[in-house]
Inverse folding.
């Protein structure tokens, strides 16, 4: 116990603050020049601030803009009015262009909606009649393939009608030219 007390006392002794570190000592330069008696400050010549120049410039600028914006002696508009009219015309062109672009984007969105959400047809046209005969030839007992001659005849007739329609259309185009 004695050794523990001695070590603790040594640590406390080392950590104890001394008198100069307990208080903050402040020294000011003004205290040492003349022992508290201050000399009067030198007069400072302060220039006008930038706000005065801005205010005076704003008055002159407003008078200038007013005189430039008035029509001339012959009644013609001056440069400022013609520039303003040009800007108005450009603004109107921009509004028309924006209206057209908006219409285009709305139509594109409408078409996209039609393409994405239109009901799909489950009907699939056959590209060739042999498609019905596709299937595994293995493990099929004899006589178990369906007779699809009537389906082949239907699509052959449909093809012939389509070819006849195309031939009539070509003949009509030749007569016109």
């Amino acid at each position: 116990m004695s050794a523990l007390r001695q070590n603790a006392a040594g640590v406390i002794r080392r950590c104890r603050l001394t008198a100069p570190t307990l208080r903050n000592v402040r020294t000011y330069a003004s205290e040492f020049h003349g022992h508290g008696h201050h000399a009067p400050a030198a007069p400072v010549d302060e220039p006008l601030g930038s706000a005065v120049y801005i205010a005076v410039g704003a008055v002159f600028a407003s008078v200038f803009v007013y005189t430039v914006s008035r029509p001339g002696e012959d009644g013609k508009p001056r440069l400022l009015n013609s520039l303003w009219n040009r800007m108005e015309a450009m603004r109107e062109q921009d509004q028309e262009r924006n209206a057209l672009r908006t219409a285009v984007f709305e139509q594109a969105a409408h078409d996209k909606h039609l393409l994405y959400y239109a009901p799909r047809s489950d009907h699939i046209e056959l590209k060739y009649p042999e498609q019905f005969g596709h299937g595994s030839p293995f493990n099929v007992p004899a006589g178990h393939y369906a007779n699809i001659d009537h389906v082949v005849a239907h699509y052959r007739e449909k093809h012939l009608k389509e070819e006849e329609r195309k031939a009539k259309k070509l003949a009509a185009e030749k007569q016109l030219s």
Observations:
- The longest helix spans residues 79-117.
- Helices lie at 2-15, 19-22, 29-32, 50-69, 79-117, 149-176.
- The two ends are 126 Å apart (CA to CA).
- Residues 31 and 174 are 117 Å apart (CA to CA).
